[in-house]
Automatic annotation (TrEMBL):
Species name: marine sediment metagenome
Name by which UniProt lists this protein: Uncharacterized protein
């Protein structure tokens, strides 16, 4: 498990999302998340695709990977070199449901090198 060095000092009540036009990820939050991703992957090669570490970073911001059917994402990432996009959602504990974030998704690319280790590029787009 990866320890995140700096946790944000704000939560959903501090206007992470603009709810006037649906749940939308605000630019400063996107930048903070992408900065965490950059620190994780910069000059680092992985034995496996670090999807749990990526998910842990998002969870700090109450953002979760979600499938098309509205459930938490589960699946396989296959291939030596590929890319995928995964939808993002906010979890609402009161209704026990997820609400899609309309203007953002996780972009994930990987390349398996001859050494067997992975080069990863990931960001919230």
């Amino acid at each position: 498990m990866r320890i995140i060095e700096s946790k944000p000092n704000f939560f959903i009540t501090d206007n992470i999302y603009d709810t006037q036009s649906g749940f939308r990820l605000l630019g400063p939050v996107r930048k903070r998340i992408n900065a965490e991703f950059y620190k994780m992957v910069y000059n680092t090669y992985f034995d496996a695709i670090p999807l749990q570490d990526i998910s842990d970073i998002l969870n700090v911001y109450n953002i979760f990977l979600i499938q098309e059917d509205g459930l938490p994402w589960s699946g396989f990432l296959l291939g030596d070199s590929s890319q995928t996009q995964i939808d993002l959602a906010q979890y609402d504990g009161e209704s026990d449901s997820y609400s899609w974030i309309k203007n953002a998704n996780l972009q994930l690319q990987w390349y398996k090198m001859e050494s067997g280790r992975y080069e990863i590029n990931t960001y919230v787009g």
